[in-house]
Amino acid sequence: MIARKFYIKQIEPFIDKPFIKVLTGLRRSGKSSILSLLKDTLVERGIKKESIIHINLESFQFRHLDTDVAIYTYLQTQIHENERVYILLDEIQEVENWERAVNAMLVDFNSDIYITGSNSRLLSSELSTYLTGRYVEFHVQTLCFEEFLDFRKVRGIYDANHRDAFNEFRKYGGFPVLHTMDCDLETAYKIVFDIYSSAILRDTVQRNNIRDTEILERIVKFVFDNIGSSISAKNIADYFKGQQRKIDLNTIYNYLKALESSFIVYRIPRYDVKGKEILKTQEKYFVGDISLVHAMTGLKDRNAAGILENIVMLELRRRNYKVYVGKLYTTEIDFIAEKGNEKIYVQVCLKMEEESTVEREFKPLLKIKDNYPKYVLSLDEEWTDNVEGVKHLHIADFLLQENF
């Protein structure tokens, strides 16, 4: 199994602390593997294997543990009195009233508890109700570019030029399963489509009681076709109107929230730099992994810039930045990212081949007179001029920086 040290390093300080450790993320993003890696970490720390109870609730072996009473009773039979145990529960949302069971485990057992789940709405609402202040969440994404390179090295693929490797990454995306074996794009997109279908059915439709799956699929198509563009419920309603379909705005909002809850899409709000406030209109939507777009709509040149923005957004979120789309007067800044006292501004484009493109990307950043880092990112190999404190970098170089 290939280590994902970034997440293990985040979790390790909380081992044996009195918090439930919650791993959330898109289906097949690697949560189960991280639990297995965590199990290895516990053993390396001297924990006996017999003291670690690891249950994958999607496994047929544990199909009978589908209620709070069933799973609690089962664990009672596995634990000796006063024994310190480490409980790892994968895809906890498969258990009815799971939050009651987890709360009881925390109270009744001498235990350290780790759970994973693929639906943020389900987890956040029930955790906040029953376990407020008693859990810590770690959001797991599909492979970032650095992890993609690590996976390739384990498979014996050494990239002399990481910029060339980036071109592969933006075609294949980051689902770990794709990078544990050799597969062509057609096979890769078939695998991704199956992951998408599972996430839509189990984590979106079933968990949110969605009845009109055709409308949901059309909304997904609209969002995927407009990655990197501002979207509103009215835009989508007008799209349906053009297809002779009428749909209520509240329905659109609810379906978008359902897609967010399953981590298929991320909503990035707009931030007014001048007024220093978050705006409630014209957000942008991005996907949990770029391969979802390719698998659903094919590789399209017109999506290329939006795909690059998506990759950068995911990297910023992975590093625990709060990410916004910036508005400065009538111009737009692709991303404003904040973390504590840190802030960076980022513009993303394909190539700086025309003077108008250079002006469009640099001008908004040059208007901002603070001292926070400002970047223009593109796929240009040679064009590296920096202007008045605004750095121009190849996107691959930016993604591999230790610090921004």
Explain the overall architecture.
- The chain is α/β, with parallel strands linked by helices.
- The chain folds into two domains: 5-139, P-loop containing nucleotide triphosphate hydrolases (Rossmann fold), CATH 3.40.50; 147-399, Arc Repressor Mutant, subunit A.
- The chain has helices spanning 5-11, 31-44, 68-78, 98-108, 120-130, 145-154, 162-172, 185-208, 213-225, 233-242, 249-261, 290-297, 304-318, 355-366, 395-399, and strands at 20-24, 52-56, 85-90, 111-117, 135-139, 230-231, 265-272, 277-287, 322-328, 331-339, 342-348, 374-378, 390-394.
- An eight-stranded mixed sheet has the order 6-8-7-9-10-11-12-13. The protein has a five-stranded parallel sheet with strand order 2-3-4-1-5, with helices on both faces.
- It is globular.
- The two termini are 30 Å apart.
Q: Strands, helices and their partners?
A:
Blueprint: H1 5-11, E1 20-24, H2 31-44, E2 52-56, H3 68-78, E3 85-90, H4 98-108, E4 111-117, H5 120-130, E5 135-139, H6 145-154, H7 162-172, H8 185-208, H9 213-225, E6 230-231, H10 233-242, H11 249-261, E7 265-272, E8 277-287, H12 290-297, H13 304-318, E9 322-328, E10 331-339, E11 342-348, H14 355-366, E12 374-378, E13 390-394, H15 395-399
Parallel strand pairs: 1-4, 1-5, 2-3, 3-4, 7-9, 11-12, 12-13
Antiparallel strand pairs: 6-8, 7-8, 9-10, 10-11
Helix pairs in contact: 3-4, 8-12, 10-11
Percent of sequence in beta strands:
15-25%
Q: What is the CATH homology-level superfamily of the largest domain?
A: Winged helix-like DNA-binding domain superfamily/Winged helix DNA-binding domain
Q: CA-to-CA gap between the ends?
A: 30 Å
- Uncertain runs are none
CATH class of the largest domain: Mainly Alpha
Q: What is the count of helical runs?
A: 15
Query: Care to count the β-strands?
Result: 13
The spatial strand order of the largest sheet comes to 6-8-7-9-10-11-12-13
The CATH architecture of the largest domain can be given as: Orthogonal Bundle
